Amino acid sequence: xxxxxxxxxxxxxxxxxxxxxxxxxxxxxxxxxxxxxxxxxxxxxxxxxxxxxxxxxxxxxxxxxxxxxxxxxxxxxxxxxxxxxxxxxxxxxxxxxxxxxxxxxxxxxxxxxxxxxxxxxxxxxxxxxxxxxxxxxxxxxxxxxxxxxxxxxxxxxxxxxxxxxxxxxxxxxxxxxxxxxxxxxxxxxxxxxxxxxxxxxxxxxxxxxxxxxxxxxxxxxxxxxxxxxxxxxxxxxxxxxxxxxxxxxxxxxxxxxxxxxxxxxxxxxxxxxxxxxxxxxxxxxxxxxxxxxxxxxxxxx
Amino acid sequence: xxxxxxxxxxxxxxxxxxxxxxxxxxxxxxxxxxxxxxxxxxxxxxxxxxxxxxxxxxxxxxxxxxxxxxxxxxxxxxxxxxxxxxxxxxxxxxxxxxxxxxxxxxxxxxxxxxxxxxxxxxxxxxxxxxxxxxxxxxxxxxxxxxxxxxxxxxxxxxxxxxxxxxxxxxxxxxxxxxxxxxxxxxxxxxxxxxxxxxxxxxxxxxxxxxxxxxxxxxxxxxxxxxxxxxxxxxxxxxxxxxxxxxxxxxxxxxxxxxxxxxxxxxxxxxxxxxxxxxxxxxxxxxxxxxxxxxxxxxxxxxxxxxxxxxxxxxxxxxxxxxxxxxxxxxxxxxxxxxxxxxxxxxxxxxxxxxxxxxxxxxxxxxxxxxxxxxxxxxxxxxxxxxxxxxxxxxxxxxxxxxxxxxxxxxxxxxxxxxxxxxxxxxxxxxxxxxxxxxxxxxxxxxxxxxxxxxxxxxxxxxxxxxxxxxxxxxxxxxxxxxxxxxxxxxxxxxxxxxxxxxxxxxxxxxxxxxxxxxxxxxxxxxxxxxxxxxxxxxxxxxxxxxxxxxxxxxxxxx
Lengths: 301, 558
Hints:
The complex is a heterodimer. By secondary structure, chain A is mainly alpha-helical.
């Protein structure tokens, strides 16, 4: 892929044109400037803040979500290490490890949920937006949603592998098995885990075992919550490879929207014009009636 | 030599160079180009939340940086100058798909009062990426008033397309062309001139064997675009038309008669990538496997799914799953629609007759077969195709029957205007205007061979035909392509390269390539070690488009 940068040549051309005096004039020193106050005293002379220079407020959400996702990624790495340690057979007490795992899991799940909440808030904020800002907001949300989805899907995959190991199920999942299987099974596994804990409690089993199983159930609950979140986000996400993922299709769509909006506008305009005319006619009729009445009164006298 | 990776690395570079919130500014032509390479979600990942057209009314959004991907045309220049006099965005990064003339730069600089332009670059991506070895310039008609005369716009566009194709692949080729085609000669001269003129751009490391740019004229093989196709990609294009990766077809099985639109993109759709060259029979088997794959996944993992309602619920509950099932149902409905059309148009019989017409010795029974089909219940287009193929085959053997056939077409209910396609076709691509023979030579040896074939039993009667391009490429790869038919443009290059076996070959078919040819090129790329071929066409033809083009010619040629 060859390419050629023409910026240098272009700038040479641009400098050779004299119109750049305009810019110099602006920055040139103006003696009046010395005596100008920072805030205009004269109220009539309002300073104009051009709104189109400012990015919409919701853009900052991206930074927040970025840092949350970064945080979760770090936590997931920590968790990975803990998992690796934990599944190793040993006789020492694992309570501390388990607590740490639980803490991290809850933290990560919460972070994901916070992300989702942020998205929802932003969505509510941008509902009132119009025109290109609305479109931009929609695309913006869709991008963030798909990023959160990917991250959380990875986390869930790890969690369910761990869960399977804990429950002594066949943990040797072949790598060819797609993410798909994971999703289907991780929810199912989590549900059965929770049921089992409930069952154990009913049967009044050994307290130690119940405590262990409860910890496991916590993880399972997290998975279910995240699966729920994944579903909620799906509304926003663009399906890859589908027609809505085509750039030309999206442009066509906006053009169709713009056209229909224009039509509405014309309709409204003509409607307004008509009402004006109608009012005028009514006014004339009333006038005529009034004049007739006056005439009648005068004639009667 | 991979168009997909070349185009994607261009976009990767664009996205790297401009950070922060961006708006993408396109025009109609580049919208098609961009859509053929990347997707909306690719854009979103790069913080491009808005895509707009240069010619449209737009709001001012000066908190955004503008990435413009445009073709260097006079219209673009005018619109861009207006834009720069009153900039709508914070800064402009301009990427042009081709070489920018200096005067163009000067006029732009003149309008840039606010110094809004931050960078200008040439990224040579002036073609549509169809497959990773197939490109299209998207020009439907190329001829002005005689079959040897270029339409100015089309000529310029084709020339630009070839230049950008060469630059994006980093090739400085020697040029060979169809000796009997003035269109190819003119194009070859112009391309060669640009290569010399822009020697700075074409300054690539010299490979051991020079790459070859082979310019071919459609008129030397009018057969391929007229045949019924039997491989997936070609079939879809023949029956519904693939428009830059988008296919719309009316779904007769569903309740509403509205047409469905789908996307077929080999880079995004692994099933399509795998099956696009499979013939219809194999495709059916693969589709069945694909469906049962979906079935086993659902039953194995979630055993509670029993009814269709369960299935539906299940799909709604698991979005990742839905992606796969969406793809499965897309292909299933497409293939079922294909088989509907195959039945409706009696394509199995039509295909058999066609293949025996173009692959076997001419026989008198051919006429009866055609005659029977012309009065059967098939569409106008299919009738025209059959008649055209017969006319090309029997043009010299039996001219009386060829003209009788035209009367029969009219009697069979074909629009007389459309029947005029046949004389035009013979005038443009008839025997005396072609070189080489698209039909197998008729001599004792070939007759013996076809007899042998009959004995052994042909593997598949529907796909016996090999496009003429195949034999040209085979000759070229083995260094046997004759200079009498495909001369070098510059005689000095001939001395060095005539006997070499080329490695990198770029074939451009003036007048349009077909998916059947693309299939063979892909096959070559997969089976011939050391040989890399890219195919490009002024457009990608199916029979409808080809007949349309001939119709267009018939109204223009004096």
